[in-house]
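User: quick one, fold this
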Amino acid sequence: MRLSSSSLPQLPDRVEQPAYDRDKVTIGLVHLGIGAFHRAHQAVYTDKILADDPSWGICGVSLRSADTRDALAPQDGLYTLKVQDGQGERLSVIGSIVEILVAPENPEAVLSRMADAATRIVSLTVTEKGYCHNPATGTLDENHPDILHDLQNPSKPKSAIGFIVEALARRKAAGAPAFTLLTCDNLPSNGHVLKRVVTRFAELRDPELAAFVADVASPSTMVDRIVPATTDADRAAITAALGFSDAWPVMTEPFRQWVVEDDFPLGRPAWETAGVVFVEDVSAFETMKLRLLNGSHSTLAYLGYLAGAETVADAMALPGMEDLVEALMRDEVSPTLPPLAGFDLPAYRRALVERFNNPALRHRTWQIAMDGSQKLPQRLLGTIRDRIQAGAPYDRLALGVAAWMRYARGIDEAGKAIDVRDPLSARIAELAQGSDDPEEIAKALLGMKEIFGDDLGADPDFRAQIVRALSRLFSEGSAAVLQSFKKG
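Assistant:
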């Protein structure tokens, strides 16, 4: 038997359930990208406020696959959230998602829901690549296949950008106010990036529409929660705990954080009662998180994968990894961060190390390693630029970039193929896969201006640092390189 509304009364007492009548919940928020992160983060915050205001139910939209809809529709949109660490686990059923649409099956249904006056917020977690932008500049990639398609087929878009602009065009035509755009992806100044790409897309369609889109509220946010991919073993454990099967439960850690700029002209949920921090400017928080957490995450993922570590906790157990991560955060990243009045930065760094070491959270290094070409500019390269400008060393950051090159080349240290998931994987392989020469690989990949810009690829000192780090990875292997960072 499946988890569903009818099975809720039969769940064990220890499983927390929605504290509201789901029949009274109406949709006020459309979320593009109904993946695991959204279901462990924004949907959980929203679940906590529906008892007081049931007008903020979520319509989740899958932009590519029907998998999430097919898993959750027989469960009335319900799913289990498992919060786990070394001390134990806590289970709760989340009910804030009341509708799931699959965009490729019925784009009109998605556009109609977004254009509906009851929809006051359109949020999204589509990962960096979903913005169809140039990561090095933050501008719209006007030659992106989905963008070219959506300009020609505005009523049948493929991209999040195309859906947003067409829905706004319909609201403009109807004389309805624009919804608020709320990005929850790991991009610096994510609200500004989203506003920039949708406005440019609108300009390519119609200057009058662009003027309307330019006035849309698009607050920036900082989101933080580690959410590993769900495995079949996770599903089996949840079924045993509930007495009912759940086709797509979500696993996560106790820590969660959401900092949001408070700019919502049509109103918003009272998320502050669930722990959201509303601020005037989120930039300092997002820079801190992108550089400390995400930069460290990517570095340990590439080095850990190359050294044979399947999970983050496994990677942290490698001799030298924890020392490398601590020094990376303390000595190279923290000096580049903007001031955060009253914020305990050393305590935050300690909490990150503790989270990375969480043995119950089987977060695969391969999962974190995805889409590296899109992530590197935000997570590592901006920090490196600041270190260069300050005339300060950045050996560990350079090692993280070199480890990405070694990984993205697509062949591991044993000569076996790596399943590299990246929108630029074919081009990276074409540039780097045929060579074992670190200098040739570095030269080829540093020439990718959409990743490294015009400056870093042409910087001889930066190139020399990358070549040295890459040479060590080839000659010694990542495990040996890590050991050289071990204290004592």
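User: anything notable?
Assistant: The chain has a mean pLDDT of 96.
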